[in-house]
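A common beginner's mistake is to predict each chain separately and then try to dock the pieces by hand. The better habit, illustrated here, is to supply every component at once so that their relative placement is modeled jointly.
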Amino acid sequence: MAALLEVTTADGRPLRVALDAARGRARLRAMALVAPLLIFIVITFVVPIGQVLFRSINNEGFAQTAPNLTAWFDANPTNVAPDETAYTALAADLELMRRNRTAGAAGTRINDVLPGSRSLFTSSARAAADFAAPFKDAVLAKDARWADPRVWHAMRTASNRYSLDYYIIAADRQRDADGRIVSVPPERRLYVGLFAKTLWQSAFITLLCLALAFPIAHLIATVRQSTANLLLILVLLPFWTSLLVRTSSWIVLLQGQGVVNNVLVAMGLIDTDHRLKLIYNNVGTIIVMTHVLLPFIVLPLYSVMRMINPAYVRAARSLGASSWTAFRRVYLPLTLPGVAAGSLLVFILAVGYYITPALVGGADGQLISNMIQYHLGASNWSLAAALAFILLAGVIVLYWIYDRLVGVDKLKLG
Amino acid sequence: MKLPAHAEPSERIWRWVYLTICSCIFMFLVIPVLIVIPLSFNAEPYFSFTHKMLALDPEGYSFRWYELLVKFGMAQPDAPFGIEWLADMWSNSTWFNAAKNSILVGVCSTILATILGTLAALGLVRDEMPYKRFVTAILLAPMIIPVVIIATGLFFFYSNPCGIVGFECGRLTSTFTGLVLAHTALGVPFVVITVKATLTGFDSSLARAAASLGASPIRTFFKVIMPLILPGIISGALFAFATSFDEVVTVLFVGGPQQITIPRQMWGGLREQVSPAILAAATLLILVSVALLATVEVLRRRSERLRGLRP
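With all components supplied together, the output reads:
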């Protein structure tokens, strides 16, 4: 029965098989077209980001500079207090550090989690040649800080090949004498506050952009096509202009002797001795970032508003709604897809912003990206990597939401 | 959009208020871009309009900052104009060298991004493409992920690019190749998006017609598909070029003293002492962006006409 119904191609193959083969070939052709770019992006983008993750948790450096201690830590569980064998290993490693000149590197690694302990390593390593048994007494005689259990906890986690030490630092935490993770004293808390500030400020800038974009997107969407094209050019011009050009213009406009202050002085609104501080602080960051990111929300809003049939609002009015009610109950809900798409995009871009805060932010306008760059420049690579990865994780979540909500390939580029 | 004749006075007032607000926002968008143009002709080293400038006195204006832009870094800027002066400028002028670097990196990365991006877009619009959504998200990620994170990753990766496969080879830090690869990755999403958008309006029966008339797939591509999607490809390429031309973060992180591009040079100028020469450079860059914007707009309209989206 089945054989009777089997349709075959001209050369006698079953149609189903031939069709599957053709589909498979088409699939392979599509994949072959995408493959070169996919491989390129994996190498130049995915692999480097993987390296950020790797750097943030990898600390093989300490295990290499202190092999004896690492062996002792491997042999003894966490709760064993350092005994004479531990101090023998420590003395041997300090001597090794003295000969290889690696005490600075090892000290820096421990110093990251336990500030102030770099000198402990460098000064003890200098004296390492003179240590003699019993080593515990010799080392403690050189520096009593070696008895501090926190030093031993720090060295134990650092001797693991992988540790989350730098994420603990990025969370403003540290290990106490018992190895528990506790908050650092308030004056040393840096990163959680900076992450919070970055989020808060990005949200504020997003709201500001939305408030500015809504009226002009609505205007562009409702005027004649020729006027709309002209107005769109006004939005696209800053969009296409180099970011550094726009930043330099704002510096010119906002600085103490700049155009805005001069106009305000000429109008008599402010005293020449009390010029407004509009740049090299947080105010400057917010103004310039709002300007830079505004086109990214105007374009999606406009493309949604253009599709809203004006008859809906007219219908609401003819049924007795006031213009405000018609706007609030009919027009506004229809714009929500554009509002969501634009706001989310601006927020994502704002969270990772680097250039503007670095140039016009001054001391208090810096965001988390600037902190990443700072630690990278100061060779605190692991900490920079940990901070970058936390930021990345947040952005990936937002990116995923954006892709679900809008579709990233629907991005409006003008 | 005109108000109907029966509009109430309150609506008329609101209309005026609304238009005023919109004009202010448009001014906020455009003035910061345009203000540098007149200021770059300032005869004085100030960042504000002098009285002479406001009075439109020709003495208040000068080309001195443009001159400085050309001559800065030259060995003998005041030598008489001739072959030697030009050679001096070609090899020594700081901004001119930055422009050479920018154009070189921009052109190389644009070519690479356009080829890779167009191929990928052709594959991504096919129905047979598996994991379409996920692959698209990966390919477009360099546009969304903060550049600082990408640059941090490249900083680690470029210090020993072969390290991931377990052996040592040269580094890509402070090389043109490294910078071109980075800028290609940053620019390629724009090519993919614009070409994909052009292809979605593409009538695939045209390609089938060419095939049924005996054209090979390659001939079909170059004779039928390519001419129709060319405006999209060029727009994408211009986006990629603009991205590279304006990119400073990866240059800062993985570029060396031999890879000073125009944005890097401006960055240095803005960090130290802002000189009006920066405004002259900015004015020239605005001309570049206006030219790019105009080209893309013309192409977009042409593409929409070609695909019958617009009369």
